[in-house]
Design a protein that fits this description.
- By secondary structure, the chain is mostly beta strands.
- The chain has one domain (2-114): Archaeosine Trna-guanine Transglycosylase, Chain: A, domain 4 (Roll).
- The protein has one helix at 16-24, and strands at 8-13, 30-33, 46-66, 69-93, 104-109.
- Strands 1, 2, 3, 4 and 5 form a 5-stranded antiparallel β-sheet that branches.
- Strand 3 (46-66) and strand 4 form a beta hairpin.
- It is elongated.
């Protein structure tokens, strides 16, 4: 992952539960990213801490053609630009409700720059 190399990365949010979390973010906020599925995040899960540099919400329009019929779809999209801060490991997490972010207490792993 480019972000793990310490560079800045813009990601597009596609899943609905992540979209609602992004709506609550502001530039300067810190987020924990992991490739682990949401329901499998637990104490010891490793990931990356990143700072939100920029956020944008916009309407995406697509067209689908089937035979002579054309259908237009619109949906909201979110993009966040992130700058990696450090590697981290989950120390604790709060119970989660649908539509709310998963809040975790993480410990930074100090050897991020060594990788």
């Amino acid at each position: 992952m480019e972000l793990a190399k310490g560079s800045m990365r813009t990601i597009e949010i596609q899943s609905p539960h992540n979209f609602f979390v992004v709506l609550r973010l502001s530039p300067g906020d810190t987020v924990f990213l992991s490739s682990t599925s949401l329901k499998d995040v637990m104490v010891g899960t490793k990931g990356i801490l990143a700072k939100v540099v920029e956020k944008s919400i916009f309407m995406h329009r697509s067209f689908q053609c089937v035979g002579i019929h054309t259908e237009e779809c619109e949906h909201l999209c979110a993009q966040i630009q992130l700058r990696a801060k450090s590697f981290a490991v989950v120390r604790a997490s709060e119970p989660r409700e649908v539509g709310t972010p998963l809040v975790v207490d993480v410990g930074e792993i100090p050897y991020f720059d060594a990788h």
